[in-house]
Amino acid sequence: MIIEILYEDGDLMVIGKPAGVVINRAETVKSETIQDWAEHKLNLQIAQPNESEQIFFSRAGIVHRLDKETSGALIIAKSVTAFENLQSQFKSRSIQKTYIALTHEKIIVPEGEINVPLSRSSFNRQKFGVSADGKASVTSYKVLSYYQLKDQLYTLVEAYPKTGRTHQIRVHFKHYGHPLVSDSKYTGRKRYKKDLLWCQRLFLHAARIQFAQPTTNKLILVEQSLPVDLQQVLTKLTKI
Questions:
Q1: Is 67 a known active-site residue?
Q2: CB-based burial of residue 111 (10 Å sphere; 0-12 exposed, 13-18 middle, 19+ buried)?
């Protein structure tokens, strides 16, 4: 597996996670994971980790997660101290993340906030949905441009999740009436099949992440431009 390192210092690295790669090992996952890659890259070997080291080693320093289908910037800590510091930044919501997504239909309001609670679906444990008794979930967004393909309209947006719920951006935009292009879980079977004719994977990319360097506290901004496959998707559409 070829992984691009977008930023690296003594405490951490930020990699560009490819789409289609799973973050963590599981019995159902047969291919190489980011966890496998990180363990090898950082040479993480310890016979008997103590309690504070256990989570760090069990996650191979991976501080947060991206869905399998999502590409983009992912932080991996090199030490327990850096891992705990970065986790604390995520919990305090001081880390700023920017995603680029392509949604169905034209989002009329150019900037806004989607604030609805989310919980795991009781019908399908692999999916999440809006629920009154769910966890607080907030995503801000800004429209970048509009596109058209035949008689269908699409919106390219920047999304800024203020919380970090699983599938948050995907569920929020579906609830808003604008599911993401080629989202196998939330777009709907018929629409998803049509999407695949011109966009082979979920159009969601973690483009930027800003955080405080664990040792110096200096703000670090790491960016990864839209991958070639998603750039090519946009060339198939007409900008309006």
A1: yes
A2: exposed
Q: pLDDT, tens digit, for every residue of 139-198?
A: 999 999 999 999 999 999 999 999 999 999 999 999 999 999 999 999 999 999 999 999
Using alpha carbons only, give the angle 113, 117, 118 rounded to the nearest 5 degrees: 115
The amino acid present at 28, given as its one-letter code, is T
Answer whether 182's CB lies under 8 Å from 202's CB: yes
What is the reported pLDDT for 125? 67
Binning pLDDT at 50, 70 and 90, where does residue 124 land? confident
Domain that holds residue 45: 4-239
Catalytic residue among 9, 36, 67, 183: 67
Give residue 163's identity as a one-letter amino acid code.
Answer: T
Separation of alpha carbons 105 and 19, rounded Å: 24
Number of domains the chain is built from = 1
Q: Tokens 């806004």 correspond to what residue?
A: 112
CATH number of the domain encompassing residue 127: 3.30.2350.10
Give CB contacts under 8 A, 24+ apart, made by 23-30. 23/62, 23/65, 23/66, 23/68, 23/74, 24/59, 24/62, 24/65
Cα 152 from Cα 179, distance rounded (Å): 13
